[in-house]
Amino acid sequence: MSVVVTVIGHRPEYGWIVTDGGWMAMSRDRGTAARAQDQGYGLVTDLTGEPIPGLVMTAASREHGTLTARDGADLPESPIGTRLRVLPDHACATAARHHGYHVIGGTGSTDPAPAIEAFWPRVTGW
């Protein structure tokens, strides 16, 4: 599972990439915060699902996410409008934030935007 976000700004003085996906899209759950390697709100990939080394969503306000590089990694070239995927730290907490899910094609695609094959509405209630 992933959440697609769009780059909406840069704060190079802080080493940040700012996105349009904050905790309303990702949840507030940071289950790895107490671990030796904190994954923040999630790891970041390109649209095909290829991980971007060292890039993590480290902070989130209600509607904005902050991506930062760690472990000596460089921030990737990411012009405003670039779409990325965030692999959430806690998938079920993130999935509960959405009304449904777009199912995309299999892995290994070189298409920058894999085709949506289905939409699964979320079943609610207990």
UniProtKB/TrEMBL annotation:
It comes from the Bacteria. InterPro entries: D-amino_acid_metab_enzyme, D-ser_dehydrat-like_dom, D-ser_dehydrat-like_sf. Residues 1-105 form the D-serine dehydratase-like domain. This is D-serine dehydratase-like domain-containing protein. The lineage of its organism: Bacteria, Bacillati, Actinomycetota, Actinomycetes, Streptosporangiales.
